[in-house]
């Protein structure tokens, strides 16, 4: 059994409010899709305010990054951040390595299965697809857990090796065209893998391509994102009650700069949909900066009261994820049934989506607040 690293041998840790607030912010961005800002922007052409909001609530077409593109990497990053606290808590309760590993395997399976379940809603049969946020985390989670018991040097080495080997594999895969063609949509190594792998499972019709270009193999560089979170969580825990804000800012800025350099020099583009190594580095830098910002405001400046609105969501992230995927149609149809189809047009047809969505989002939050007040937290 691996030796217990010194930084894990501690009393049960106190929850980090900044981490919960950051997670809550990310989940609200995801749940905020109900606002349908792109529909408002389409109804108000030329209005820069709604155009900017709409652009940041959609994924970029291919290369680049919007605020919406940072949801999945942030969620993955925060899985890593939370792991040192999780391991320390379980060890303080007397859990053995074997028992924790068994729980990790079970959790990885549940996350993967839950992702497939949600992707199968309204489908004629089980939709075996593995590009969903939960499945991507589930596929890499056991490897992350094992790295949690290793030194920081090993963790950085694993991060570098994963990205470098992944980049080499893609760069060497034969494709027609120039070097940039190795990262083209549905014409790359990951796509070729899915054409084989996803057709192993029963399907109504053979898998040909993912409409958005998303890939199963993206779980490998996503593991790199989680490793960055693991390292950040280790720094946070080791420095507690202080916060290594400066270190987060330095690594965040370095990640953005290096990711952009790889992109603009043509070595590797920043593409979230296929989770390129450059995207892992670039988005990881953004995650470090966001963690630095939340930590500075909440832990350093001690401006904590406002964060309650976010921590209500962040402390119940799995419940928030399920609510957003399962309850939208029910709540929307119920509101329109009881309030009337034209009720949400009171400010004009253009603003109907954001008015209706705002009410739905508020109901989501009230449900999570109700669960928070009764200490009902959904855990996997």
Question: What can you see in these coordinates?
Answer:
This protein is an all-alpha fold and 380 residues long. It has one domain. It has 15 helices and no strands. Helix 2 runs antiparallel to helix 3 and helix 4 packs across helix 9.
End-to-end CA span: 24 Å
Largest sheet: none
User: What general outline do the C-alpha atoms trace?
Assistant: globular
Oligomer: single chain
Count of β-strands: 0
Strand content: under 5%
Instruction: Label the structural class.
Output: mainly alpha
Overall mean pLDDT: 93
Low-confidence stretches: 1-12
Give the helix proportion (percent range): 55-70%
Number of helices: 15
Radius of gyration: 21 Å
Elements, N to C (H/E) = HHHHHHHHHHHHHHH
Domains counted in the coordinates: how many?
1
Keywords:
380 residues; mainly alpha; 15 helices; 0% strand; globular; disordered N terminus
Q: Helix and strand layout, with pairings?
A:
Layout: H1 17-31, H2 37-43, H3 48-55, H4 71-92, H5 97-119, H6 133-147, H7 152-172, H8 189-197, H9 219-239, H10 245-264, H11 277-300, H12 308-314, H13 317-326, H14 328-339, H15 352-373
Helix pairs in contact: 1-4, 1-11, 1-12, 1-13, 2-3, 4-6, 4-9, 5-6, 6-9, 7-9, 9-11, 10-11
């Amino acid at each position: 059994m691996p030796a217990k690293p010194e930084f894990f041998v501690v009393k049960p840790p106190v929850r980090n409010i900044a981490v919960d607030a950051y997670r809550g912010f990310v989940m609200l961005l995801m749940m905020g899709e109900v606002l349908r800002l792109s529909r408002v922007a389409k109804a108000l052409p030329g209005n820069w305010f709604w155009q900017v909001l709409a652009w940041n609530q959609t994924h970029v077409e291919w290369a680049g990054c919007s605020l919406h593109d940072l949801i999945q990497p942030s969620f993955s990053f925060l899985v890593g951040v939370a792991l040192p606290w999780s391991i320390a808590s379980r060890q303080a309760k007397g859990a053995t390595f074997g028992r924790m590993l068994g729980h990790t395997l079970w959790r990885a399976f549940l996350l993967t299965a839950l992702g497939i379940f949600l992707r199968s809603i309204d489908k004629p049969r089980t939709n075996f697809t593995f590009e969903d946020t939960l499945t991507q985390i589930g596929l890499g989670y056991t490897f992350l857990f094992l790295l949690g018991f290793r030194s920081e040097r090993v963790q950085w080495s694993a991060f570098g090796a994963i990205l470098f080997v992944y980049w080499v594999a893609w760069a060497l895969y034969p494709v027609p065209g120039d070097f940039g063609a190795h990262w083209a949509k549905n014409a790359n190594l990951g796509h070729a893998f899915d054409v084989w792998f996803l057709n192993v499972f029963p399907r109504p019709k053979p898998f040909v391509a993912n409409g958005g270009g998303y890939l199963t193999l993206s779980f490998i560089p996503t593991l790199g994102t989680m490793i960055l979170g693991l390292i950040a969580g280790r720094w946070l825990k080791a420095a507690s009650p202080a916060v290594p804000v400066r270190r987060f800012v330095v690594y965040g800025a370095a990640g953005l700069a290096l990711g952009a350099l790889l992109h603009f020099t043509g070595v590797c583009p920043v593409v979230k949909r296929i989770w390129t190594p450059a995207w892992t580095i670039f988005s990881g830098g953004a995650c470090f900066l966001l963690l630095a910002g939340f930590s500075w405001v909440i832990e350093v400046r001690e401006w904590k009261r406002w964060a309650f609105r976010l921590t209500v969501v962040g402390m119940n992230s799995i419940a928030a994820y399920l609510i957003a995927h399962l309850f939208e149609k029910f709540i929307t149809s119920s509101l329109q049934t009881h309030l009337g189809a034209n009720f949400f047009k009171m400010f004009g047809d253009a603003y109907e989506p954001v008015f209706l969505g705002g009410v739905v989002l508020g109901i989501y939050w009230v449900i999570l607040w109700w669960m928070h007040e009764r200490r009902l937290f959904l855990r996997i």
